[in-house]
Amino acid sequence: MSVMHNKGYSSANMLTLLDTIGKWVSQIDSDTEGIYRIHPHWPADLASDPIAEALSGLLRAIQQQMRQVTVQHAASVKIMGQLAEDIASLAPLQEVLQRICDTARYLLASDIGYIALLNDAKDAIVVQAGSGVSPALIGVRQRLGQGIGGRVILTKRPTVFKNYPAEVRRDPEVENAIDREHIISAIAVPLIRGDHAIGVLYTAMRSIHEYGPEEIELAANLAMLASVAIHNAALYDQTAWLMKINQEFAQIALIDNVLDHICVTLGKLTNSRVSVLDSRALPIAMGNRTVWEIDEVTGPLKKFFSQKSSADYSFTTPRNEVGILSPLDSRRGIAAVLALVKHPPYATLSERDFVAIDRAKHFLELGLNQLRLRHEVHLAATSAFLQNVIGGHFSAELLADQARQLQLDRPDRYGLLVAYVGSPSDVSLHRVAIQEMLAGVRIPIQHHSLVASMVEDNCFIGLSESSSIETMATYLHETLTALVAPYPVWIAVGEPCPQWLEYSRQWHNCLTTLQWHSRVRPQIPVISSTEYGLIGVLFDASNVDQVKRFCDVTLGPLYDYDQQAGSDLLHTLLIYLDHECELRSSATALHIHYNTLRYRLQQIASILSIDLEEHSTRQQLRMALWCQEAFGFLSPASSPKPS
């Protein structure tokens, strides 16, 4: 204080100086580039004062610091914007992962950034890409629930550690790899897609660093963008792989009826009737369709499969003809059975017959594998296309190009079929069976009859020609019911859409309808996606009990009165509300006198204990009537009295 007095400072001068500093701080604003500026306005009598000059220097330092922070913020926003652009673009997964690691490392000024993704078995995460790390870290595997990353996947929450060598959550299986990278401090944030964690994004320092809330929030925001980018990149890789497979097997796809041709040739060489059958005695290929009687091999076929052997099985038909069943192997075991029955008067199979059968089996197995691969390629391509259609993440041009490759022309020729299996906890056991059905027992795609795929363990989608969609829905219901018995199956039939993109909306409408239908009218197997109208979309099907109670409490007494008195007051109320509560037009619509309507409305108000003049009451009644019209909750004597 003495120094100030020696420099000539008075209380008034100090107040003036402090007031000036306050004005400087309040005058900090932002220009069009987001750079903060200070507009100093020194009093003339303080312009050359040493303390004032020191304070000015301090404020200039604050100004410079604020500029640096703003520039860093602008750079962060620019990089996040670039990542958002990457999400909308199509790029290989590995390229996208590397870009995310580089971005995380730059934004958080870290020494290291790396990503570990959930493996196919969903029991571990595996490091897929990194920035600032050695190649040895790539491929490191950590089991779920173990260490820090394994816990982040399960909890779906960010985790921070300051000193890894002293960390009690170290995982012995990965700590050597982490120590080789000299990681000391890090943030681990989950990568979440929908309700599921798909991986972990790490940003780390090789020195002790205490990450603050802002850094954790920035890493979490980056992880949200990265999750979408990873999902899109995975779809891109899948599509690219499918295109490659299509090209590689294009020549195979051009072969028509190759199995039938082999059966015809073998039949001529051995003077026999020849066919290729599946385990249900259904023909996959036949040499001569006019002379085969499949019943003559059904019994022997059952015995062949019951013996659980890959050896040939000889038999005699009811007409004393000699036959043989020989298994056709594929990469998945017995794919089918070659059935051969000698024509009379040949009573036995010669060595030449067996040589011909052996050679034919070689080509048949090749043909079966080719046929299966063709079906699987088609199934994979159609699955990717349908996933893109219902996901709504791709442009109309890309979807149209994929549709052309699948020989699908106008979108409005088709309708969406969505099948829902009524036991989500157990139906995964049947997923393989359904996939087998799609890969083998499916209508050829070139006939534009059905394009189908599994979406989830309990959900199946298909596109069918709208002209035959009802028949196809019935066929699918019968087929899926047989595959997943004893669980129930319901199918929703969507409407044709003029654009492929619009099928995403149809998909969600069908799902909502099925969720309601399985709870409200489970006895009906096939329904329209518009069965429950707007109400079915507005209400969550998991709240069916609450919606039913709302309908019962609001309209139940009136419904019960109609049932007991044989009146039609519920219908009167519906018409009255539909005509905006206008008496004369409502009476005309009901074909009753104006005064009769007034009397009925008085009855309704008395029975329900309501005031029909209140706007909120009318809205509540409208909603309850819509629910009743959509779901039919009310039944005689079922409505509880309001508590």
TrEMBL record:
<dbReference type="InterPro" id="IPR042070">
    <property type="entry name" value="PucR_C-HTH_sf"/>
</dbReference>
<protein>
    <recommendedName>
        <fullName>GAF domain-containing protein</fullName>
    </recommendedName>
</protein>
<feature type="domain" description="GAF">
    <location>
        <begin position="92"/>
        <end position="240"/>
    </location>
</feature>
<dbReference type="InterPro" id="IPR003018">
    <property type="entry name" value="GAF"/>
</dbReference>
<dbReference type="Pfam" id="PF13556">
    <property type="entry name" value="HTH_30"/>
</dbReference>
<dbReference type="InterPro" id="IPR051448">
    <property type="entry name" value="CdaR-like_regulators"/>
</dbReference>
<dbReference type="InterPro" id="IPR025736">
    <property type="entry name" value="PucR_C-HTH_dom"/>
</dbReference>
<dbReference type="InterPro" id="IPR029016">
    <property type="entry name" value="GAF-like_dom_sf"/>
</dbReference>
<dbReference type="Pfam" id="PF13185">
    <property type="entry name" value="GAF_2"/>
</dbReference>
